[in-house]
Design brief:
Layout: H1 2-8, H2 12-43, H3 89-104, H4 109-116, H5 123-127, E1 132-135, E2 138-141, H6 143-146
Antiparallel strand pairs: 1-2
Length: 150
């Protein structure tokens, strides 16, 4: 009963007091968290932020410009950066989709994924390449690849 009486007698100033107290406690909590971090660093429990970036070890070598062709018709168009000639799964799926479309023509995206064995979650990444265009009839090869003999 006392709780109901207290709720009925509340005013805007009471709410303002509560909000001010919460803000004060939040500021104090933030200061205490910062103090805890400093103490943990001082005791060796925690490493300073950015510690792993401070210069031990060799600097990275700058990447060299790739001399390999990006023309999809040339052999080796999908070489890995190391030049090992290994294909990623996306590249393998892209080649499968390309061969399928060359043989069968435009195909809907989900049918292409199903027939080529490409996982449903990967088909979008596979088709994000200059080889493919999306039309009303489905996924097609770009003009430069249509004329290319297989």
């Amino acid at each position: 009963m006392k709780l109901l009486e207290a709720l009925n007698s509340l005013k805007q100033s009471d709410l303002d007091d509560i909000v001010a107290k919460i803000e004060s406690l939040d500021a104090e909590l933030s200061q205490l968290k910062e103090l805890r971090k400093v103490i943990e660093i001082k005791l060796g429990v925690r490493k300073p932020q950015g510690f792993h970036l401070k210069g031990k070890g060799r600097p990275r070598k700058p990447r060299e410009e790739s001399t390999e062709s990006t023309d999809p018709g040339e052999p080796g168009a999908f070489r890995s950066p190391s030049g090992a000639g290994q294909y990623t799964a996306t590249e393998q799926h892209r080649l499968l989709a390309r061969e399928f479309l060359m043989a069968h023509g435009p195909t809907k995206q989900n049918a292409l994924a199903h027939r080529c064995g490409i996982p449903a979650g990967s088909i979008t990444a596979v088709l994000k390449h200059e080889w493919f265009t999306t039309t009303a009839r489905g996924v097609e090869l770009t003009c430069s690849l249509k004329a290319e003999p297989s």
